[in-house]
Structures are given as structure tokens and as C-alpha cells.
Prior knowledge:
Chain A is of the alpha/beta class. The first copy, chain A, contains 14 helices and 12 strands.
Amino acid sequence: MTLSRGRDVLAIPGPSxxxxxxxxxxxxxxxxxxxxxxxxxxxxxLADLKRLAGTDGEAVIYIGNGHAAWEASVANILRPGxxxxxxxxxxxxxxxxxxxxxxxxxxxxxxFGFTGPVDPAQxxxxxxxxxxxxxxxxxxxxxxTASSVRxxxxxxxxxxxxxxxxxxxxxxxxxxxxxxxxxxDAWGADVMVAACQKGLMTPPGVAFVFFNARAAAxxxxxxxxxxxxxxxxxxxxxxxxxxxxxxTHHLYGLxxxxxxxxxxxxxxxxxxxxxxxxxxxxxxxxxxxxxxxxRLNVADPACRSHAVTTIRVESGDGSRLRRWCSxxxxxxxxxxxxxxxxxxxxxxxxxxxxxxxxxxxxGTLATIEAGLGALGIARGPGAVEAAAQAIVGxxxxxxxxxxxxxRQVTAARLHG
Amino acid sequence: MTLSRGRDVLAIPGPSxxxxxxxxxxxxxxxxxxxxxxxxxxxxxLADLKRLAGTDGEAVIYIGNGHAAWEASVANILRPGxxxxxxxxxxxxxxxxxxxxxxxxxxxxxxFGFTGPVDPAQxxxxxxxxxxxxxxxxxxxxxxTASSVRxxxxxxxxxxxxxxxxxxxxxxxxxxxxxxxxxxDAWGADVMVAACQKGLMTPPGVAFVFFNARAAAxxxxxxxxxxxxxxxxxxxxxxxxxxxxxxTHHLYGLxxxxxxxxxxxxxxxxxxxxxxxxxxxxxxxxxxxxxxxxRLNVADPACRSHAVTTIRVESGDGSRLRRWCSxxxxxxxxxxxxxxxxxxxxxxxxxxxxxxxxxxxxGTLATIEAGLGALGIARGPGAVEAAAQAIVGxxxxxxxxxxxxxRQVTAARLHG
Amino acid sequence: MTLSRGRDVLAIPGPSxxxxxxxxxxxxxxxxxxxxxxxxxxxxxLADLKRLAGTDGEAVIYIGNGHAAWEASVANILRPGxxxxxxxxxxxxxxxxxxxxxxxxxxxxxxFGFTGPVDPAQxxxxxxxxxxxxxxxxxxxxxxTASSVRxxxxxxxxxxxxxxxxxxxxxxxxxxxxxxxxxxDAWGADVMVAACQKGLMTPPGVAFVFFNARAAAxxxxxxxxxxxxxxxxxxxxxxxxxxxxxxTHHLYGLxxxxxxxxxxxxxxxxxxxxxxxxxxxxxxxxxxxxxxxxRLNVADPACRSHAVTTIRVESGDGSRLRRWCSxxxxxxxxxxxxxxxxxxxxxxxxxxxxxxxxxxxxGTLATIEAGLGALGIARGPGAVEAAAQAIVGxxxxxxxxxxxxxRQVTAARLHG
Amino acid sequence: MTLSRGRDVLAIPGPSxxxxxxxxxxxxxxxxxxxxxxxxxxxxxLADLKRLAGTDGEAVIYIGNGHAAWEASVANILRPGxxxxxxxxxxxxxxxxxxxxxxxxxxxxxxFGFTGPVDPAQxxxxxxxxxxxxxxxxxxxxxxTASSVRxxxxxxxxxxxxxxxxxxxxxxxxxxxxxxxxxxDAWGADVMVAACQKGLMTPPGVAFVFFNARAAAxxxxxxxxxxxxxxxxxxxxxxxxxxxxxxTHHLYGLxxxxxxxxxxxxxxxxxxxxxxxxxxxxxxxxxxxxxxxxRLNVADPACRSHAVTTIRVESGDGSRLRRWCSxxxxxxxxxxxxxxxxxxxxxxxxxxxxxxxxxxxxGTLATIEAGLGALGIARGPGAVEAAAQAIVGxxxxxxxxxxxxxRQVTAARLHG
Lengths: 416, 416, 416, 416
């Protein structure tokens, strides 16, 4: 008998939970696409996307998904035959590399494995060994959604500069934008790609490419009218922003999501919230690991994503656990993804990105606790309590309550 | 700093969480109220409400709330000056009594306190002491939302019959319908009142009165055209069902909610789910109580509601806890309600009625755990684990998974 | 073959079309009913309802429909046996009278027929003939939804004053509030009743009673706790505003509707818009009537509602036309309602209240034109053109376009 | 003063009006993208898209707009340097040609002007003049959204065959799919492109490419992983269907729209409805033209789109009219689009595609009537009446009413 008759919750690393308000914003009549509100709204969305990315450069919205953004970024800065260096820390760095290869780019992968970040020293060494600057671009993910490894971006820029190399630095923030701190201009990224269905809390359907003046100057003649970012950033007419019909309802959804992030909560607070939630997940996994096979895929907390956590278990236990949580309790966890030398059956993932509060996150951890019990999987005690403590320590202390706004209680003592 | 930026959740004892599907069903253009779909839909809603109540009698939908249903029931079976016996187990029995008194009814209250159920023997004794049958009706709540005491209804009927007394038995199922087992005809209730915003998972706005042939025969000339149940059950024209304009959108919402309860899950499964969730709450409170002041208001599990749990704490701790959960974690708990001799500050309540799965319930308990930690309130360990175990023991065992439908996994190994 | 596959439209005199924004506002999670946002929102709704009614008196929201408001108003100002004078101009005045009689009030009806307004002189004469002031209250509808007759309210007050009579004046604005000008305090109404599903554009479910200090002073001991307006206007605790659980989602819907009316459009503009739309309907009917049996039920334009128009046709033609429009074209027209001496089959009604623009109204008139053609019903030509002209003359002249806000055209010349 | 305070309506040639039910279907929690319902739903959507297209070939869904589909189709069948013949009847044929040229294709345009269809004889002659079969593909629009010219597709196939030429025939049905009859296999189209926001009534965001075995056999090595249709039609894992994250909410919307088209109304009835509505528009324009400059851009009814109508007016009148309708009456009309020798200011367009019934269409025409009057633009009389007659003649005759389902009238005579 299933008890799963309430609201299903997704704790996968994207698509993430869509706020009711975003859904409401998208629940509207088709707007005029020639004039009026939509035109202004689009301008404001583009401006706020840049704020979110930390850049004064350009922002482009593609109707597409993360793979579309990968391809769009490559199509604008690399020609077939050009050389690019991909810095991989899991499945998604390798995925971007594969896209590039299919497009005819001469891709060289520096694989940093599945459990740790990019090593800037190795990048610098490689660039020093490229005296003729054949490497036109370096592609790096900030957070690899498969491994949950998070790499520092500024040191990669420093390594490139130290090597005196002109290569462009392109960063995949698909799984990190709006979750982990990212500052495009300050950190020296030239290109950045992202999508709407993770930290931006909007149903999948649009993806983003940001680029700065260096990237614009280095851009190639794009062979694809759809991916070409030039008319999309210097449009004569509105429709060029989207190479045709705009994604009307997604624009309304994004407007709402950006208001929630930038206006209501504030970007610094969003990042801090994600950090606290991440620490709660880590505390639970550490507690489970004290009495069983559980462990965090990434040992060093400084290199862990704040948006997704990959967990190692006995092979097969991840699938059993996911099945139980889904069938019995209304919780969908993320599957393990394969990588060289990695058995996906020995992994599962918890997404903790976007529209999340302690109730939702602790419910996820407590449901896993129940599932482990139901399945007789060995584990240490006190995981949920440890997570609860991390929540308290990280942000939810009583002393902070005042800042949350002490709403006046108009008591309603009689009726329930 | 608040972390409460995801979906707020209500764990109050009504209004309960509205399923997205019910909201969607209510998100529609105004229908024709003269002919077509709405007419048929209303007939089906009335029929299914009777199934839910376990009666072949009549069902009436009032645009109103629980208090409206209280008043409507009284207005149809009692005249000013008539005598009625109210069996109280908390604030809401007393509330029904107060309504009756304001209407001029000669109300006598048998108060069974705040922590235990109606005692049928005392009812029988009282009726035997009424040889002239002055008592026209007995009003009893099944579950008192304030105390979370649940009384058995069939033994009350047996007591009335044993006393050979003709009084009507009217039951308040506002907090129990669709949560705790209730069988109107089998248990011998003559009148039953309920509302839509608890087990029926619909926004507040309509309330119900059910009655059988005995009640119809004993009905008085109702002085209120609005409360009068006669034209509402034998209408010449559709509008009489609602004494005027029908509650169009609520009818669509109810249709959806009834489908979820009766067709998709099944009423027996709904009741079992509520029982399991209730046991999970009790297990958590028992664990907390092992190291602190926490205890369940109702000692005997057989007399506890499956829809709401009242918890005793140190005076003031309930309010502090509720505030923390609301401000920090997106969780709204139920306030304590006063009753004779009861300090509402020494209580709080958890609603676990309606649209609920283990993820949501365990999230609530784990959030309370975090709040207790943040506030430094003494408590025993292992509460959430105990609740998780109760979930597993009660319904979510792995062996049951098959019956939940082993959905085919179309693996999506690469992308996350 | 039906062509009715687009969005059905209601042109009945209530429930009226619900704006998408109101539906969106109601599409939300259940709120906390004890504290926070809902408390403040309710206060603002009550304040704005008073602005809408033009009163500094009290406003009460009942979960109920128009009949509930009728009963509530009577229950607070009249006791069984009290005498009241009902001024009837159609079915709904008679309906209010019938409600009063069932409640035991000694109702006297002054029936002004089905095609013209209340005559204040007759009212004054009747009151002069009541030297002992046995008449406690005068009940009058502003607009009778059945006949579409609209009566002037201020002259009725003047008549009462001229007679030096202390009777309360209660007015039914169910079909007129938010459509036709109404100024409660300025016009001297003591009590006013209305509901949400007409000019207020919200799904049926709540109704309103407004009253001034005179009515408060004259109020009786209300025998019904639910209708009693006293605790609802001087509540100790929030729940008393609604005698129990509040109509949560309707409050959000009302908040949105009131913003649309009072903030965005402005009440004077709302009234003017309704006047223009009404004149368009009249122009069309006059044109049809030039070649057939069509005529407006109310001859004098000054006595016609701006919210609903009752149209006389050959007996049976109304039903045939309504059927054709509904089955073939997605348009629901209002049925004719019987009254003494009136054959409902010789009537149909067009509702033009609330959320309406020229596109919707002209679509309704042009669909009727099509239906008349399909059914071979004789009529004059040029009806829709006449209506279009009335629109233009009334508000949509080109010179006005500037005030509508000349939105910048960002031309999108290439794509369609 | 604007009267535009009801529901705005779009009568542009796409995005078209989104049915409330489609919006409701998209208003839902994010689904699991790895297993369960979404997988099955996607399979059913693909199958039904093929039914809609009339093909047993393959269907591919791209997250993208119409331009994306244009590019995807070219990228799979043509290499840079390959020769293709574009048959243009307006702006959009030229647009597809421009896309191809930017992709490096050797595009030759046969321009049939702005007011008439493709001439198959000329196509045949051109192909006979290509003895070495250098032309790899012929690209033709069925309906050009700018000119509203509709060309016959089967004769083009016949011309190709008559010339004994192996060129692939690719057809743009973006503005016609689900509006005008199209039978991909029967008519011999090898490739077809479309999008969701016109006849499919879904917010913009996904586009479609269909192809048959001939096209599959002739497909080139696609240089773009995103456009490559091969992994999308023979996926090993689900995510390959969309080259990454699926367009979750659009899939739910499409499922609903396809049910409305294929199950509830039936494709033949959908086509017939569009034909009737188109004839109503033509009748109105003809009537206006009798007294002014109005005329239909396409003289021959057999060559007119059933989804969009381009109308010629005095230069500037289109813009003035569009402005008035939008500002005053809540109606958005389509702008004129430039083409060689065509002044866009001398055009405007009415979209009549998708979710449309006579009420909506007649409202559009009557609003235009009002606007012409307000602006003093000369025109003939009786336009709306002529349109109404066309509605009746085309489908809405009384004799047909029975088939619409004679719904039982449960009369509600008293209340309005």
C-alpha cells in the first residue's frame, strides 16, 4: 500500500520545483508579441539575467535546453578544426566535450576525475605548453551535476593569465546559477551558459548564453542562424532577440522567478540559503555513513556543489531507495549517472536547488531515513537530527527570527 | 535570516492543503448555471458525498463554513425551547452548544473533558433519566479539532437504543470526514455535518448536512429559507439545491477531490493512510517526550484522531515553536485552543489531514525537531526516526512496493 | 456541426465572466488563517468594499450567495411579526419578499410591474398612511435582474423623509454593484446587500451586507449566530469576521477584483464603461426591432440597467436562440424569468456586467445576429453596426486613444 | 477613455489563443523526467503528432520556434554547397531561403509573388532543366503567414515526379497544421516542419520536424548535435528524444491540445471549422470593400489560407485600425509584413487559427467595424451580417444543432 497521496516532490538535480507563483505567472492569455508589455518585460528579464550572472556583458535567451546552450556557445566561438580544452569533473564536462567534437572542434579533455575539482596548476602548465596559442577556448563546468563537484572559476582565469594565454574561458553554470556564488566579470569568465530549469525555478524550455566584449571580439562567423548570438544582441526588431517567435510564457515565468531571487530574497541570501541546505544534506549523509556504506562523493566540503549532492552507496541500493521513496512516499530522488570507472548503481543524487525551504529538505532526508529502514539498509543513527542542527546553525537560529519579520499575531483562539 | 523560501506548507487542522489538481479544477471559466454540465456534475457530487458519509439518506451542500453547517443542522431539527444534549470533548462540542443556545435551544452539555472520549454509559444513564423524552436531539462531535479526542459513534447510538429513547443523533464530522472511518447508516447517526476544507481538501466555502429518513420525519418547520433542507433535497428547479446561485467553482473542486478519494485511492485506503500518518506523529511525540515536557493530549491511542494531534508542552513553547517553524522553515503549525481548565499556551497542534504523504509529514516532524533545537527546548532523541519507522511499519514496507505499481524505468543515464 | 470549439463565453446576468487574474489569485496554496497576510488582506478587502458601496458604515462578508445576503439583512433588522414594505420591479423584489415572509415578517408588496421603476410618490403616500410607523423597513432592489428595470434610490429616500417616516431603507444591489452608479451614504440607504459573482467578477461564494449607524441602532437581536452582523463587525478575534473559517480563496479573488475596479480602472470609469456597453446593446435591439418582434423590456432608457438587458421576443424564440448560440457558437445567453403576467418564453436576457470589453460584447451581439439568421427569425438590419457606433460614440472615439496610453510600437516587421 | 477592460483577445496569426485547458494542463508540478508518466505521455504525443501530420514517418520535437524547425530541417537534408529550390509566396518562403543561405546552402528562389500560389508547371519545368539532379531539395510553404496565400502541395509532388527528379520535398506547415487540410504521406511530402503556437494552440516553445523514409535515406551527416534528427528518432535513452532535458510542461500542454483536436473534435471537423470561419472573414472583407479600399490580398478563394487572412487597405489605415482595436476594445490584430514591392502599412492581418468559435470571430469582425467607424475609414455596410450568414451557411445551421448534442435543460426559472 502506498502512502504517496499528497503532493509529489522532486529532489532531482533539475528540473527543480517550480514555485506556484511562477506557474501562475505562466498561466495567462497569449500576449501580443509585436508591441506593449512583452517588449518591456523582455528587456527587464535580460537586464536581470545579467545581474544574476554578475556581468555587464551580453545575455542571450535561446528557446532550448542546456544542450542547446552548450552548442550555441561553441558555435559562436569555435570553428570546425579549432582547438579547445575541456576541463572535466564528471559526466557533464565530458558531455560538453562530446558536443564540441560532433561539431568538428578539436577537443582535448583534461579529466580531473569524478570526485575533485579542476586543478588550475595543471591548466596553467598545459597552456604554457601551447606557445602558438592553438587553444582558442577553455570550457569548464562550475558544478558537474553528475559528480556534484564544484570547481573554483577565478583560479582558472588566474592560471590562464599566468600563462599569458589568450584563450577564452567559457563556463557551464547550468547546475549552479542561482544556487552557488558566481561572478562572471569579477572572476574573468568570457562566456557562460545556463538554463532556466534549475536555480531559476522555471519549467525547462529556455537556456542562456552570456558573453563579454572579449568573447564578442573573438567570435567566429556562426554557421547557424539560430545559434548566432550577434543579431540576438543587436536586434533591429524585437523578433531577432529570439530568432523568431519569442517564448512568451517562459518570459513571464522568468520575470517572476527573477523577482523572487533578486528583489524579494536577494542574491546573497539565495546563495547563503543554498549553502545551509547543502550542509544539512552533508550532515545527514555523514551520520548515515557512520553505520553503513553511505558517503559523500566529494570529500572536500570546499569542492561540493550547494545545489546537488552525489552520494555513494552499495551498488543497487540507490535504485532500491529511489524506488521506495517514489512509490511509497511521493519523493523523487536523482538517479546516479555513469562516468568512466563509475558504477551508476552505486550512486544516487539529491537535488537541493531553487525553490526550497527546510520543511521540504528535511522531509526529503527523513523520507530517505524511512526508505533505508524499510529496505533494511545499514546506516548510522541521527541523520535527520544532524541535518536539523545544520539548518539551525546555518541560518535558522532563534536570534535571527526577528529579521524574518515578526508578523503580528491576530489570535484566533476559538476556532480551528 | 530565514530559509523559508520554498513552498509554505500548512500543518494546521484545516483548512488543509489543497491539491494542485483541485486548484486546477477550480481554475476555469464560469459555467452556465441553467443547463448542461454543471447540473449533472452536481448530481454526481451529491451522490458521492453520500458514499463518503456512508449513507443512503440525503446530502445538502450549503455555501457556508462549519458554523453554517452547525446552525443548519440545528435549524432543521430543533425549535427554540426544544431540549438538546451536547456531548463535548473539547472546544468544538462547546461551540456547537453555544450556537444552539444562541438559537434559543435548551442546551444541556455533558462535558467529557479535554483528554478522553464520550462515555456512552453516561449518555444512556442520562437518557433513562428523561422518561418524557424531552431531549429531542443529541449532538456529538466525532473528532474535536481542539483536543484531538475521537469518540466512537456506534456505542452512542447503542446507548440511545438501550435507553429506548427517540432522540435524534447528530454528529459533527467536520474534522474527521475523509480522514477517520465514519459510517453514518451503519453506526446509526441521523444527522451529520461536515465541511469541505479538511478531509475534502477543497478551499473553505461549502459545508454539508446529511440526514436520514428519521431526521426528515422529525424535522421542524425551519424558520430560515436558507437553512431549510427540504427544498434543497426535493427541488423543483436546480437553483433550489443551493437556495439560489450555486457555488460553481467549489463544485468543480469537490468533483475532483471526490474522484481522488473514492475512485483513485479508495476510501478504505484513505482511512488507512491517515491512520499510518497519525501513528507516525504519535511516535515522534512519544520520543520527544522521553526527554522533555512533550506529551500527547490524548493518552489512549484508540481515542485519538487520525486527522489532528494536540500536543502538550511547557506553556509558551508552543507559540515559540510555531513562530520559529513559520518564520524560518515555511511550516505553519496549529495553535492551541483554550478550553475550560486548559491553557492554550501549553498546547500546539499538528494537522495531518487530507492531501498528505510521508514526505510532507516527515518534513513537518523534522522541522519541529529543528525548531526545538533552535529554541533549546528539552526533548528526547530519535523522534523523526521513530516516525519514519511508523511509516514503514504502517504501510510503506518494501514488500508493498509492488502493489504501488512497478513503473517501468526508462533510464536516462546521461543527463541530469 | 458545431463551430463552438473556442472559449465559451457567458453573457448571462451572473455569474459573470471571471477574469483570468482573479482565477490566478485564487489558484494558490491554502494560507494560514491565524496570522499574517490573510488578516491584513481581509481588512483591506472590507475597506475597499465600503469604498465600492460608497459608505462609511460597516461591511460584512458572508460565505453564502445572494439569497444568503437577503436573509442576513432581514434577520438583522426585522423580527417575526414586524412589518416591511417591499418595492418590486420584477422577480427579485418578489423573491426578497418571499424570503421575508418565510422568516415570519409581515411583508407588504408594492408591485410596480415588470417594465418600469419604483414610483417614489406612491412610496411616500403609503408611508404617510402609516402614522404609527408600523413599517420598520422598506426593501427595494436597485436593478431587478429579471426585468432589467433600474430604479432611482435617492428619490425613495427623499420620499421616506418627506413622509417623516423612520423606516429603514434596505437596497438590493446584487445585480448592480460595480456596474451601475450607487452611493449608499449620499443616497441615504441604510442597508445594502450584494454578492461577488456579478459586478465583482468573482466565482459565486460570498455575499455582502453593508449597514450604517441608523441600521445598527435599529438592529434586532438576531436569532441566528451565522447571520448576526454584530460580532462580524466588532470582532474580538479574526474568525468572528466570518463566524468561523474564512473563505480564504475568495478573499484573494476579491482582493484582485477590487484592485481592478478601484485602482486600475477607477470606479467612475467602470460605471461609464457599463453605460456605453449597455447603450450598444440597446442600439442593437432597437435595430432588430425595426424589422421584427424584438423590443427592449424597459422603454425608458433612464430606467434600464447597465448590467443586464431583458429583451422581448415572440414566445419560444428566446429559447431557440439561446440554444443555437450555445450549441453552435459558444455563447450562453440568459433565460427569461417568469413574473406575474409574464411568459418567460417571450424573453431572453443579455448580461453585460463585469469583465467586459467591446470585443466580447460585439461578439455576443453578432452571434445573436447569426443565430437569428440561422433560425429565420424576422429582424431589422444593421444591429451590430448600430452597436459598434454606440461603442464609438460612447467611449471608443479615436480622440480618446491617447488617454489609453500610446504604447510604443517596437515593430516586428518580418515575422508573424 | 478605453473600454478595454475585459479579456484581451489575440487575432494575430500566431501565437494563437491558448485554451484554458491547455494552460491548466501546463499548470502542474515538475514531473520526474527519468521514468513514469512523462515517458508514456511523450510517446503518445509523438504518435498523435504523426496522425495530425498524416504520416507514418518520424516526428521530432525540438525545443525551439519555427525558425528552429526551418534550420533543423535544412541541417538534416542539405550540406553547405548543396543546391535547393525554394518556392516562395510571401515573406516566409523568403525567410526559409534566407536561413538556408546563411547555412551555406546554394538557394535558388522561385518567387510566385505575394498574391497567388506556387505554380507546379513552373516547378516541373525548372526540374526538367536540372538533368544532373543538382537540386537536392525543394522547400515550399503551404501557407505563407505574411500573404495568407495557400498553395496545393500534392501538385508540387506530381510536378517533381513528372520531371522524374529525385529532389526531396520539404513543406512548411507552421501556419497551417491543424487548420488547413494537410496529408503528408498521401500528398508526397518528404519533410514537414511546424510549431506548437498556431493550430496547436500551445504557448510558443516547441517546434516539429516530420520526415519519411526517403528523407531519412537522403539525410546528410548533421553537423549539429542539437538539430541532428537521428538520435532523436532512434533513442537509446529517453533524454535523446530532446537532446537533453525535455520540455516537460509543453508536453503536457500538447497532450491536452492533441486530445482536443484528434479525440474531442476530430481532425476533419477542425478543418471544416477553420474553413467556415475563414469564409466568414472573407465575407466581411468583401462587404467592407464594396464601399472602400478594403480587399483580400488573395483573389482566388481556393488559394486562401483558412488560418490567416491578409487584407489590403489604404496605407496607414491598418496601423490606425490595429491601434484603435488594441487600445479601445481589447483586440490585437496582426501587423502587415513587408515583402518585395509590398508596403506593410497597406496591410493588416486577421489570425483565425486554433481555439476559435463564432463568438470570438464575430467579435473580432464587429470590433473592426467599430474601429473603422471611429476612425472614419470608408467601407461598405453589412460586413458583420455577411460574416454571420457565412457562419450559418457553413456549419451553424439550425438543422445541425441536434448533432451538437441536445443537452437537457434543467430549467432554473426563478433566479438569475
